[in-house]
Amino acid sequence: MTAQDRSLQAQALAKRHLPLLLLDTAEPYLPVALGYSVFTGPGQSPSSKFALEPAGQVTIEYAVFYDWDIGHLYDLEHVWVHLDAKGAVIAVEASTHGRRETMDSGNGLPELREGRPVLYPEAGKHAHWAHPRQMQPAARERLAVLCGPLAGHEGVHLGNPFAGAGAYRASPLDHRLARRKMAADAFVPSHRYEPADIEPQLMAWPDLAAFIPRRVSQLMAALPGSVPHFGAIFLDCGDTLIDERSEEKLPGSEVVIRADLIPGARQMMDDLRAAGHKLILVADGPRQTFVNMLTHHGLWDHFDAHIISEDIGCHKPDARMFDAALKAAGLTRADAWRTVMIGNNLSRDINGANALGITSVFMAWSTLRSHVPADASETPDYRIGSPAEFVGLLDRLEALLCYRMAVPNVNSLLTNQVP
Domain of life of the organism in this record (predicted)? Predict the structure, then answer.
């Protein structure tokens, strides 16, 4: 028998016993493709951590790839179908939360339909069950939490061989947007099951292994254009990051040579950077002042751009300062609704942001300037008392963007057909 003949025989065998996956009717994520490998003796799985020992004459391993698990982008599950010398199914195993479990609906096997094992992937998580009745109340309660409040808690999945080998990489922004997308997909499992309208494609494992990292990279690339998120965060400096009372100026000059950070400012900046936010300094004063102060504290390079009044030729609330910040972030005034300005000056920071429709956050940490708006133009959208409050507020506000712009299904941007 030639290699081509063996390949065609393996393909026919895999197709004959292809698992029939009955999905929860509320399931947002369908399987994209199954990759098969055929074993006639002991061997290491090419797609999982398990060593295989055929229970009979032949074992077919199916690697089931989903774009999404409700907790992370990328999901690979497994089913093992064991056949005797006559080609009859004598045992079925499947992955269940990292374990390899026997699928038994009561007589040692799951239901079989013309040689195809019938399995029930858990809603959102895709762990396999031989029958829904086997899912105990505690497991259902846990699943409800994972598919609801904890949806998207992991971001992009990196604990797999593809990411480990560098076949794809995820930035902080990729993780944040993946979490946003899954949080928007949160749902309540119905615990009613039916087959998908279209079955996933079947292919040899090497073909699926080549496809998966390309697919994950495509999904990540699609996220910025489909998931509502803040395009940039504009930050003032004095009494927003730096304690103005501690400033030391160069004698005979307005240039500050050093100053202390206000409590919590460093952690706030580190957290914003770690979340992949684009950070733009929007500050009034001599450029060298901000270079000195922020470089001293290791924060100058946290910013993607520095919009400083000395460079622009005007001060906040002049719209030119904010237009320059938008441009530096690769945005326009049409994007102002998905930017945030945080500052300590109602007449400059808040007034200027409000005029352009930028979400305004007043940092009320210092008492050097008024906390009372002169009029509606100086009324901030939100008020916080310290940097420690800002990241949590920002997370909540970004989640609310979903209510201002519908979230397209990222999967709809990509065909489920595998080339």
Answer: Bacteria
